[in-house]
Design brief:
Keywords: DNA-binding, Transcription, Transcription regulation. Residues 47-104 form the HTH lysR-type domain. It holds the Pfam family HTH_1. By secondary structure, this protein is of the alpha/beta class. The chain folds into three domains: 3-128, Winged helix-like DNA-binding domain superfamily/Winged helix DNA-binding domain (Arc Repressor Mutant, subunit A); 139-210 and 317-364, 3-Layer(aba) Sandwich (D-Maltodextrin-Binding Protein, domain 2); 213-308, Periplasmic binding protein-like II (D-Maltodextrin-Binding Protein, domain 2, 3-Layer(aba) Sandwich), CATH 3.40.190.10. Helix content is 41%, strand content 18%. It has helices spanning 3-15, 21-31, 52-61, 64-71, 75-89, 105-124, 146-163, 176-185, 233-238, 251-261, 277-281, 292-301, 331-343; strands at 94-97, 100-103, 139-143, 168-172, 190-193, 203-211, 213-218, 240-244, 266-271, 288-291, 305-308, 317-324, 363-364. A hairpin with a 2-residue loop joins strand 1 (94-97) and strand 2 (100-103). Helix 1 runs antiparallel to helix 2, helix 2 packs across helix 6 and helix 3 (52-61) packs across helix 6 (105-124). The protein is elongated and about 75 Å long. Residues 1-24, 30-45 and 351-361 have low confidence and may be disordered.
């Protein structure tokens, strides 16, 4: 893009109160970072603004593969884009270290301007039109844990097929810090589930329902004899446990609760994954304590799994949907949030805490 064309583009945005003078300088300085004070008059090389989201994703993820996952691109595609960025700026931008791909000083200097440019272009131009779910081809990216996929994804995909037949859904699993950044940049549309880290002022949240824990065992486990459906504390302590260590998720609530109560079970198996649990329980006398939706799902898909009531009242936890305040009034985001809210509410939810009265549903910052 020529200097004159780039400046005209930015001035047009400014005329519509969509972008600031600082952002204009940011775009121009990105196009010609070596001489920002003369960028408007110097001959600038063409620069593809589509590369900026990739620059930000590489900075946030510190990994080509993670950036590709976050963007919904192939790894070779991100590598090709990185090569173009390096050529455009005459700098490596990211170098491999023992801690991953670390940004160079030049890359760090570009990041604030790139964020400002993309945010203002998205708000000022891309998001000004009306949203029609019947015709949209948008790829909706939602942060979900593996448990969240079991609880939320089937209904979301089913509803999408009816209401937004040309749209796609992408489930993304990222560390909490990367979820925050992805929601801010728009790489993620929503985070749905138990995300206690998303409590900052920049985020809105809406409670969907309160979930609880349950115990599961194989169908012919000794504790099920006589049609028993509740574990005694003696049985809970006597048998070994398959323990899911899903860091940063609802399982931590359960683990901390046991520590406070000084309940010491036998952790025979430790695993970060839920999906192997029913297969392991089917061959052992182990007990697993999982979110109730997981227990129901395993019992429905595995005939030899039974749900048991825990020997004591375990803490519940609220499942919520989270979004960045920047997209609070965005029509597409509003539609998706309304869809999720309608699908997962206290009145219709089959996983609600027993005897808990539905609470008023609202969104908060």
């Amino acid at each position: 893009m020529s200097p004159q064309g780039l400046e005209s583009f930015c001035r047009a945005l400014l005329a519509h109160r969509s972008i600031s003078d600082n952002a204009i300088s940011s775009i121009i300085s990105i196009a010609n970072p070596y001489s920002p004070e003369t960028a408007m008059t110097a001959a600038l090389p063409a620069f593809d603004l589509n590369l900026l989201p990739i620059l930000l994703a590489l900075h946030d993820a510190r990994s080509v593969s993670m950036a590709a996952q976050q963007l919904g691109m192939s790894q070779p595609g991100v590598s090709t884009a990185l090569a173009k960025l390096r050529a455009a700026f005459g700098d490596p931008l990211f170098v491999r270290t023992s801690r991953g791909m670390e940004p160079t000083p030049r890359a760090l200097a570009l990041i604030p301007a790139a964020r400002d440019v993309l945010a203002r272009i998205q708000q000022g131009i891309v998001e000004t039109g009306a949203f029609d779910p019947a015709t949209t081809t948008h790829l909706f990216s939602i942060a979900l844990s593996d448990v969240g996929e079991m609880v939320f994804l089937p209904r979301i995909v089913e509803a999408m097929a009816r209401q937004a037949p040309h749209a796609s859904v992408q489930s993304v699993t990222l560390p909490p810090a990367q979820i925050e950044r992805a929601l801010e940049t728009g790489a993620l549309d929503l985070a749905v589930g138990y995300f206690p880290d998303l409590k900052k002022n920049n985020f809105f949240q809406q409670r969907l329902f309160t979930h609880h824990f349950t115990c599961i065992v194989r169908a012919d486990h000794p504790v099920t004899r006589g049609g028993n459906t509740r574990l005694s504390m003696q049985q809970f302590l006597e048998y070994g446990h398959a323990v899911v260590r899903a860091e940063g998720r609802s399982q931590e609530l359960y683990e901390r609760f046991l520590e406070r109560k000084r309940i010491r079970r036998k952790p025979t198996l430790l695993t970060p994954h839920f999906m192997s649990i029913p297969f392991i329980l089917a061959r052992t006398d182990l007990i697993a304590t999982v979110p109730h939706a997981v227990g129901l799902s395993f019992m429905q898909s595995h005939a030899n799994i039974r749900v048991m009531e825990p020997p004591l009242a375990l803490p519940g936890f609220d499942l919520k949907q989270h979004w960045h305040r920047k997209f609070h009034n965005d029509a597409r985001s509003q539609w998706l949030r309304a869809l999720v809210s309608s699908l997962f509410n206290d009145e219709a939810d089959e996983w609600r805490e027993p005897d808990r009265r539905p609470a008023q549903r609202r969104h908060t910052k």
